[in-house]
Amino acid sequence: DGLVVSEKEKSNDIDGTVPESELEAEEKGTEEEHPKQSDSNILDISSDYPRDKHISIQRNLADLEKLADLREDERKPCPLCPEEKFKACYSHKLHRHLQNLHWKVSVEFEGYRMCICHLSCRPVKSNLAGDQTLSKMGAHYHCIICSATIIRRTDMIGHINRHVNKGETESRFITVRSPKSSYKVVKESATDVQVLPNHSTPQKTDSYFNPKMKLNRQLIFCALAVLAGERKPIECLDAFGATGIMGLQWAKHLRSSVKVTINDCNENSVTMIKENCRLNKMKVKLNIREEDKVETVGNGEENSDTIEVTKMDANVVMHLKSFDFIHLDPYGSSVNYLDSAFRNVRNLGIVSLTSTDISSLYAKAQHVAFRHYGCNIVRTEYYKELAARTVIAAVTRAAARCNKGIEVLLAVAVEHFVLVVVRVLRGPTPADDSAKKVRYLLHCQWCEERVFQKESNMVEENPYQQLPCDCYGSMPGKTAVLLGPLWSGALFNTGFLRRMLLEAMQYGLDEAQSLLKTLVSEAECTAPKHLSTHGPSDESKQEESGIYIGTPNTSAESYLVHGKRKSEEVLRSAAKRQRPEHSAEHPPFYYNIHRHSIKGMNMPKLNKFLNYLSEAGYRVSRTHFDPMGVRTNAPLAQFKTVLMQYSTPTYVGAQAEGPVHLPGEIHVGEEVPAGTAIKVEEAELVEDDKRGVATAVFTQSYPTHCAAD
């Protein structure tokens, strides 16, 4: 937007006075001045130099009266109104005019008053012929910060508040940081950071600090602490620093075990990161290329830890330097940075990424998921695990392009984010093995049954035969949909999760502890009561990436040799060790007990239902993806059979939970023929009443091939 300002207005400052000759010249030439405005008088608010404030912005009413040069014996015009709107008058009348029409309706900001202006300084508009003509004159305000013209007073107040939230309090053209008094100091995990007042709802150029992501930061810290226990020191990168809180927590708690680099492409964020380093008494290395150039921020004698702060694109910094640990947390999807992350990450290093584009990952915007991840997904009962497997599939393909394979250590999908932590395995053989685990998924839209396609290049004549259900034969039309490609391997590594749990206990991370306990039981697919922190004695060494890594109850000697080039042969030989033939991988996906509940029946409590499935001979556990989800290797038909057996009719809700007797030909543990209808006949309910005896017999039939809603 432009702003037309006369030469007289440009030359006057806030408290200056206007000579009488200029006022007389203005009075005579008011009508002739505007049609002759040239393009040089149009001021572009996007220019990069500071400029004087408008004459309508004053500190006191007396300063505004000085502009009019009030004299009792002379008629004077209003300095903020054109002559055709307010004719020249004597001082007493002009004083009332300035006070009532301009001063009382002004907007106050830091001691200044932005008075209402009636001059023709609104932006110019072009007519059909291309000539620039002034818009219709009207009352407006001039912003003290950016000199924009706002018509309504309420809009002007909101406009100023937005400037304050962004930290701009002096000039639109030069980014000026707000005083320290306007910053808010937030403390998390013994780390202090300064944030803007609008840290929860920032503008596009502001640093973002989300308190709801505390759990995410704790999980990433535990993963880094586990890696720091394997080899020291490790070089770690926070590619999107924002306020720098994550990198500061790494350096403050792990100290000499890590060399932290915090990067951000925003200059304001880099400045804020340096200020937060000063607040936490850290040293700052300014440039990634100048290793000897170190700036001591704050009292560097108390803490010798050094944090490297860089200002460049995340792809560039990951190409310039190798790291052992990389964390990606951009705004939205991380797919644009995966190639750079895996190109330079060291062998057996860890890459963690947080994806916040949940609208596409949770199948609310399916076309966006296909565009970003090349994956076709639909909304299912297990949509959160589907989102995690979608991200891992994209990670696997990016790593394979760099001749690297991955092992998934952790995959978490909650309300606000999807977190994936993988270990990098260098070499074409791990890359091929990982790429083979990316498959398509057959999903039945009627009964929510699902199965991964077989690993084969041959075209199947009837792919519906791979589904355990018989919906295709009993339901009209096409009942299944092909989803993917998705990651078909395990989502958790039990040994790594146990060590993360120990680190969370050591550092007192309460929020992460409860989630990690659920993840350990989910990874083992066992009930939570069987969970132990250290694991069985004969499994004291957990296998990760084909390499046995000692848990904290083992001796200091482990199969990992500290070092880089010396340990390559040892790592290569260890990676060739074959895994046991019997794999204890957790079953893929889960069932929601509410989704498959029986209409007219009270289902059992979730923990009791887990015990019932376990007694039937199936592996079972709860899942963090869904509070009412059950992860089990039982087929859906058997899942429904057990659920129906231990459900009670709605009208006997006070009766203790017990089994409902099924027909004699169907028993728990046996396969239920697809498409068979199960008839449940309930016992008679007899109620003694003064009037007589009421008997009710209820008989219902439910097909087993679809959920009864």
UniProtKB/TrEMBL annotation:
UniProt entry tagged with the keyword Cell cycle: no
Domain C2H2-type: 143-163
Keywords assigned: Isopeptide bond, Metal-binding, Methyltransferase, Nucleus, Phosphoprotein, RNA-binding, S-adenosyl-L-methionine, Transferase, tRNA processing, tRNA-binding, Ubl conjugation, Zinc, Zinc-finger
Main location: nucleus
Amino acid composition bias (Basic and acidic residues), ranges on this chain: 1-13, 26-37
PANTHER family the record matches: N 2 ,N 2 -DIMETHYLGUANOSINE TRNA METHYLTRANSFERASE, TRMT1-LIKE PROTEIN
Name listed for the protein in its UniProt record: tRNA (guanine(27)-N(2))-dimethyltransferase
Originating organism: Sylvia atricapilla (blackcap)
High-level lineage: Eukaryota, Metazoa, Chordata, Craniata, Vertebrata
Gene giving rise to this polypeptide: Trmt1l
